[in-house]
Amino acid sequence: MLNKTPYKQKALVAAISAILAGSAYAQAQTDAAPDAVAEAKPVPTDNVVTVTGTSIRGIAPVGAGLTKMSIADIAATGATTGTEMLRALPQLNNFNTTGNNTGSNQANFVDQPAVHGIGVGNGGGGLTLLLLDGHRLPGAGINQTAPDAGGIPLSALQRVEVMADGGSSIYGSDAIAGVVNFVTRRNFNGAETGFNTGASSGYRTTNFSQLFGKTWDNGGWLLSYEHTHNTALSGAKREYIVNDQRPYGGADTRSTNCSPANITMNGTAYKLSAGGAITPGTNSCEANRATDLYPAQTRDSLFTSVRHHTSEAVELYGSVLASEREVKSGVAGDGVTSGGTTVNVPFTSPFYLPINGSTATQSVTYNPSADFGPAFTNNIKTKTLSVVAGANVELSGGWNAKVEFNYGLERDDVRNHGIDQALASTSAANGSFNPYGVGAKTDAALLARIGNYETRYYARQTLKEGQAKLDGGLFAIRGGEVKLAVGVDVRQEGFDGLVVTGQRDAGTPYTTGGTRTSRSAFGELFFPLVGSANRLPGVQKLDLSLAARYDNYSDVGSTTNPKAGITWTVVDGAQIRMSSGRSFHAPSLADAGTAIDTRAIRFPCVPGAYIGCNSAGASDYTVVLAGGNSNLKPEKAKTLNAGFDLSPSLLNGVKLSMSYFLINYDDVITFPTFGPVVNPLAAYDKYRVTRPAGTTDAQWLAIVQPLLNGFRHDGQVYPDVSSLPTAVYDLRRQNFADERIHGIDFDIGYAFRTDLGKFNLNLAGTRLLKFDQIVPGVADKIDLLGTNYAIKTKARAQLGWSSGNVAGSVFLNYTGGYRNAISTGVQQVASFNTVDTNWAWTLPNSDGWLKGLKLTVNVSNIFNRNPPVFFTSGSNGIIGYDATAASALGRVVSVGLHKDW
């Protein structure tokens, strides 16, 4: 250690000090440093906290601001899961929404927290790093590797910290937009029991929590268990979930895949009535209304931690997080997973309905609702395990050594149900299946087989990590003690996936998988340039930090990401801060060649519309390559964050924080849209291969075959068929674009006391100023600012009051309006404004079992505001509102009982 090698220590001190303050001052500090180190005493690890955004214990992140949610803040949200709780933060993408987690999206059923919405939908890993007590969790999902915040029991939390700034210099990959850290309780003695139940129209939720804790002289133990359940919210319970947008000024986009069916014969369309009458025309129906807007979910979560000092200097610690979740979501018969279809019914079928005496074959739309009810139920089961074990060792001179091992395991099993379209088609053709929705019933055994179709996805993700870190004081300078943290990290991630489609539990599985190993070294220096001993007028304190991290990945190479931060305290209660650095995101294993959705899809040939498609013969087709890509590069970003924090003593109770952020985000991983198929722009040439004029079949085969080798086939694609495609479009995830993002975060508050009690006023939010997407080779940038991808303004205001045993708050949530591109032009979507309230009453002067009893009431969306009308079809066929910018739950009233034991 440094104090055991005085010669080397003095050399290091001299070198750094000379840079800081000149050789004369450096020499003085070199002489003084040994005494300063000798006088330092070990500080118990319980009293020194490592805060989000730094590797050095006992200091705040220099140059960056932190948003913190305390136990009281968490309780005031009325949330029952970590995912719900994060929806109260306007800096995050899912603020004031139910999120895009409808349960019917088998690939991405976990809502990723995304600071400022950056990276949503781009890649499977996300650009906001989610931590639990500073360590990583295993990823969840089929096309995701982002952790599930909902698996962390809220009763175990002491606080949540959000750093809206790049953090790769400290944490490595995934921290481009920011970091969210869930910090659990320590030093808790006793027990807490909680029960909460809530309801809105068509929706119910319950939550039970039990917390135990015990501390002793040398350590402590914590156990938290939570059970949560909510029913599904069906689209049929909300009148605005409609395809017919005419009442709202839009178009009629209702489905024609209805029950009773539509019939096309000899080029003429006919519609069936429920009584079997046939008339010219077409039935239109709200085929998707029965799709669930929010899934039914049941979750059990357990967190336990223990720490113990085996000696005055050595602390051992460990924790276990285990969570199981089941999600059930109804998808209507015309939905993307259940799959209505069109079949041909010949005159020889006993179910054939004659029209005008014709015996021509009829094309019949089939909607499964007549035979299988309004919706199929998809099922998702997840299991999460995270185990951490480590040791803190206090060394001489105030230094600390930390060794930590982290293991994570996630299993996700997804079963999407629907009809066997091929069987329905062949059965209609041979006369054994009735697709009309009226008349005689199909044989029950055949119908059961048609409805026994399943697409099953399974993923197993693993995380194995070991880290060693050393931090402490180097030497004293006039402003204070210079501190250093250095460490190494080795991490292995694994992803194994399976997909099987066909009759339930009878299909042939397609599997994929792989691992990635990263080896990292990191360091951080903290310089208190000005402190209490050398303060100046207007410079109360001046802190500087320099950090850097080197990461070497087994599959995508190495990267080094530095960061510098400075915090200038002008006077007590007034500081200015700035940070600048580089961050990166390694391609997720769910985006790379290991992705389970990688496949070659047969695509129709549309002459004159699709590039490389010049004819429309019976066998002409094109191929789209979709899913993961083994050629992806890491995403990179340069970040700048500058702001100030004011809480001057002469304005007692006032606080004002503001931060300007700038992110230059390059090599964005996303799909290259449909441009390579329809746009002749040269920038898209690298994503398409078309058959050159005059090429023989043999020459074309030599070009096409290497492109299709190794892909599983979705449809009749060469070599399953003898004919070759006319073109191949590579629409897999690509490093497709760059983004330029600017914005401002703000937090304004005022707390004061009167004879009526204590009041707290607060306004926090985000204002995006720029959000441009730039596709290399395309002259025009894509302005995403003011779309649902980058809503300009999100804010949350609070009026809080407390007096004695009663406390309450009223919140106003504002999500700004935005433009929405539709087929007829641009729709201006209105803002979404809701009001929430939370009240708590602790029974006073109670004895016995009433002692420590607290009653709570929470009402979200007090005025039952409907979400703004949103014309464009969202994911999973849901139409009528935007789940990424609003909530369909309506007014939810919850009551709870909480008791301390």
Structural account:
Helix 1 (6-21) crosses helix 2 (23-39). Helix content is 9%, strand content 47%. It has a 22-stranded antiparallel beta barrel. It has a 5-stranded mixed β-sheet with strand order 1-4-5-2-3. The longest helix is centred in the N-terminal third of the chain and has 17 residues, at 23-39. Mean pLDDT is 88; it is low at 1-47. By secondary structure, it is mainly β. It is globular, with a radius of gyration of 30 Å. The relative contact order is 0.12.
Please summarize the sheet with the most strands.
22 strands, antiparallel, barrel
Low-confidence residue ranges: 1-47
Helical element count? 10
Mean pLDDT: 88
- Relative strand content: over 45%
Helix content: under 10%
For the secondary structure, the number of strands is: 42
CA-CA gap between termini: 47 Å
Structural class: mainly beta
Cα shape: globular
Q: Gyration radius, to the nearest Å?
A: 30 Å
Summarize the structure.
By secondary structure, the protein is mainly beta. It contains 10 helices and 42 strands. Strand 21 (480-503) and strand 22 (510-530) form a beta hairpin.
What's the topology here?
Elements: H1 6-21, H2 23-39, E1 67-70, H3 71-76, H4 82-86, E2 128-132, E3 135-136, E4 157-163, H5 168-171, E5 178-184, E6 190-200, E7 203-216, E8 219-230, E9 233-234, E10 262-265, E11 268-272, E12 278-280, E13 292-294, E14 296-309, E15 314-332, E16 341-345, E17 362-366, H6 369-372, E18 375-394, E19 400-418, H7 421-429, H8 444-450, E20 453-477, E21 480-503, E22 510-530, E23 541-553, E24 557-571, E25 574-585, E26 599-604, E27 621-626, E28 635-646, E29 654-670, H9 675-678, E30 688-690, H10 697-708, E31 712-714, E32 727-730, E33 734-754, E34 757-774, E35 782-783, E36 793-803, E37 806-815, E38 818-822, E39 825-829, E40 832-842, E41 853-860, E42 892-900
Parallel strand pairs: 2-5, 26-31, 27-32
Antiparallel strand pairs: 1-4, 2-3, 4-5, 6-7, 6-42, 7-8, 8-14, 9-13, 10-11, 10-17, 11-12, 14-15, 15-18, 16-17, 18-19, 19-20, 20-21, 21-22, 22-23, 23-24, 24-25, 25-28, 26-27, 28-29, 29-33, 30-32, 33-34, 34-35, 34-36, 36-37, 37-40, 38-39, 40-41, 41-42
